[in-house]
């Protein structure tokens, strides 16, 4: 009997963001792989599942390896792929958890590729999850695109000139993997005169959450860190509704 690998994005924070299909897969799993960042005491993915009932004895914690050495990364994912492929051949139901959506800037993409190379005929299912930027937009009530606005999603560039060009070429830019670049990114937005149209979210639904719908005065020192996303709007959002005072004038 062939096993199945299921990739699940647990959402960017609140436990209630876990889709029902993902919950069913989680509860029927024989093994649940849960990544933990190197140096961190707790897995963020596990924190996102606080209050969710499932058999935690089936958890298998793995250290999240993002070494800049490409060869080290290849060996890491090759070993993990071998471990998962062996369990799938035994007929086990294997779940791999990740933060946000499993196929949006996620390590699960590397894991899935490694497993398929070793076990091409394996049964793999990926359940769509909630991305960090979708959760940020909801928390800030910040539309990611209306009408024919063009939205770009990208990891933060290494220099201000590149980011400026991307902003000027799109209506909205979703900026991920900001990290230590936040100070110069905020300085650029203020220099362009658009900081008041932008939003920022970090650790949504978790301890240390930061939410800001106007970045004019956001303190980079207090907001920088892991699990952050920045929503950039080049111009103020267009209003399509009739303002209440306009209705009053019309009735006068």
From TrEMBL:
GO terms for molecular function: precorrin-2 C20-methyltransferase activity. It comes from the Bacteria. Pfam families: TP_methylase (PF00590). Keywords: Cobalamin biosynthesis, Methyltransferase, S-adenosyl-L-methionine, Transferase. GO terms for biological process: cobalamin biosynthetic process; methylation. Belongs to the precorrin methyltransferase family. Homodimer. It catalyses: precorrin-2 + S-adenosyl-L-methionine = precorrin-3A + S-adenosyl-L-homocysteine + H(+). This is Precorrin-2 C(20)-methyltransferase. It comes from Herbaspirillum aquaticum. Residues 4-212 form the Tetrapyrrole methylase domain. InterPro entries: 4pyrrol_Mease (IPR000878), 4pyrrol_Methylase_sf (IPR035996), 4pyrrole_Mease_sub1 (IPR014777), 4pyrrole_Mease_sub2 (IPR014776), CobI/CbiL (IPR012382), CobI/CbiL/CobIJ_dom (IPR006364). Its EC number is 2.1.1.130. It is an enzyme of class 2 (transferase). Pathway: Cofactor biosynthesis; adenosylcobalamin biosynthesis. Gene3D superfamilies: Cobalt-precorrin-4 Transmethylase, Domain 1, Methyltransferase, Cobalt-precorrin-4 Transmethylase, Domain 2.
